[in-house]
Amino acid sequence: MQRPVYLDSATTTALDPEVLEVMRPYFFEWYGSPTHEYGHTFGLKAREALERSREEIARSIGANPEEVIFTSGGTESNNLAIRGPALADRDKQHLITSKIEHTSVLNVIKSLERTGFRASYLNVDGEGFIDLEQLKNEINKETLLVSVQHANQEIGTIQDIEEIGEICEDRGVLFHVDAVQSFTKIPIDVKKMNINLLSISSHKVHGPKGVGALYVREGVKLSPLIEGGYNEFGLRSGTENIPGIVGFAKAIEIINKGQLEHMRRLRDYLMKSLLGIPDSRLNGPVGDKRLCNNVNIAFRFVEGESVLLHLDIRGIIVTTGSACFSRTLEPSHVILALGLKHEDAHGSMRFSLSKYNTLEEMDYTIKNVKDVIEQLRVISPVGR
Amino acid sequence: MELSFYERMYSPKLLELFKNPKNVGEMPDADVKVTEGSLACGDMITIFLKIDEKIKRIDNIKFLSYGCAANIATTSMMTELVKGKTLEEAKKITFKEIADALGGLPPVKMHCAVLSIDGLRSAIRKYEEERGLIEVPELDESFIRSRLRHVMNPKIGRDIVSTGMVEEMRILDGKVEIDLCIPKNNEFRNYIVEEIHERLEKLPNVKELKINFKDD
């Protein structure tokens, strides 16, 4: 293999060269700040680009353009989606989320808990689907917001967002969806799914880093987290990242069904072959309920950081749910929430794909994963 | 050529032993075999010793490892350092000597060197107890503190006793109660608590363990 086999696309992806081309003029020629009510002619090109991009992104999720706010990425979108309503409505002090959310949701909610909010963390079943009955029981008249991700970052479980949206709509609570992993991979219609707030990010879909967006349904009240010159309808001040935003819109425009089908084929091939390794088990569901680019497998009797390092030496880039790989030395909260043991998390490896991966890369990966697991099991005190 | 991530994190010696560990495998005729650490912690080693009974010398040592690269390499290095040493000489080897022999360890991985030393010392202790060479120690504060010196604060790579995290403790009829002072914003708080349980609950004379947080 010439270049590294990059299987960490759930974390971030390469910029598509076509995207870079449309961004370029906004760095060098039309670098002005977008002209709004006040401004100059030089900023008009930026203004046009901003609004065109906003329309493109709104169209991709079934929203109106004025309901889309550009941010610095998924993390900021999640912060604004949860903190924004919490700061705007002091009467309701209860939040609901699931145990397997991204840290940019969980840590915002934990931080609000320290300021007096109450929070409920929904359980998930063995494949990562949230308990809808528990959700119905947890909603009460104090509940301000329910935040549930569309697809999981580690195990690819796709939640039934339409069903959850209906429950939230019935009970009159705000519904926020973190769609950072699913955006452009699964169709999203914010109206049909009764979504009030939706987070998306550019760099997961071959757009530039540092750009994301938050859909805010008309009428939903938010307090801004970043104040200043009233950009983005007063909800997110700061000069807009025009090249980034233009790139984000272009990245979405060039995605097609063929790419998704390509990833799905590689996913199923990789999954089937790796599950041929003895004492391995799939984390998350199979088929259409699983994200088209996610494979997550637990290999018993080995520790993930050792697997990761051996694969890194061989030019294969993956991640693991092992405690050794986390900043807090704790195993993956997602794997534990499935009801699995710590050692299942330590031995879990995630392979996440992009449109750039090839069948040849999958074969190289399969061969090397088999070798590495075998090598580590020879020296393991367990499973002998 | 740019250094890879693992070459920045680990010394060349450590990486070499990770790729090709020494003294690895089982020893069917071992005089003593112990397992230290646990699957749950993601760090577990098994140590086998062959000991010359007359002169109390480690003639052969082997290990098995379930753990990260640092776990494999530190244990491999430990086996190299103790092979051929008497039990008394082997007991004196410290985790720092292992880290030094590897050309250094990141603070967050210092606990791996500690685990390899713990495995070695447990094996020697088991051998000595089985042959009636020593008595099982009494459960008192200095004994508990000596065990807690094996729990690392990963933030700085030093143990929790010398860094003042262990405040008071009460010991009565096998019940141990420890007052800990770990700042709430220390991201390793849960890890440290689990490590303490791991170290103390396995001791034969500890029946119950309770940990209190002084800053709560």
Cα separation of the termini of chain A: 33 Å
Shape of chain B: flat
The span between the termini of chain B is 50 Å
Strand content of chain B: 15-25%
Strand order of the largest sheet of chain B: 1-2-3
Helical content of chain A stands at: 25-40%
Give the SSE string of chain B: HHEEEHHHHHEEEEHE
**Rg of chain A, please?**
22 Å
Major sheet details of chain A = 7 strands, mixed
Total strands of chain A: the figure is: 13
Instruction: Name the CATH class of the largest domain in chain A.
Output: Alpha Beta
Class by helix and strand content of chain A? alpha/beta
How is this structure best summarized?
Chain A has helices at 17-23, 25-28, 44-61, 74-88, 103-113, 132-138, 161-171, 242-253, 257-274, 304-313, 333-337, 342-346, 359-378, and strands spanning 5-6, 68-71, 94-98, 118-122, 143-149, 174-178, 197-201, 212-216, 280-282, 294-299, 316-317, 319-320, 348-352. Chain A has 384 residues and is α/β, with parallel strands linked by helices. In chain A, α5 links the parallel β3 (94-98) and β4 (118-122).
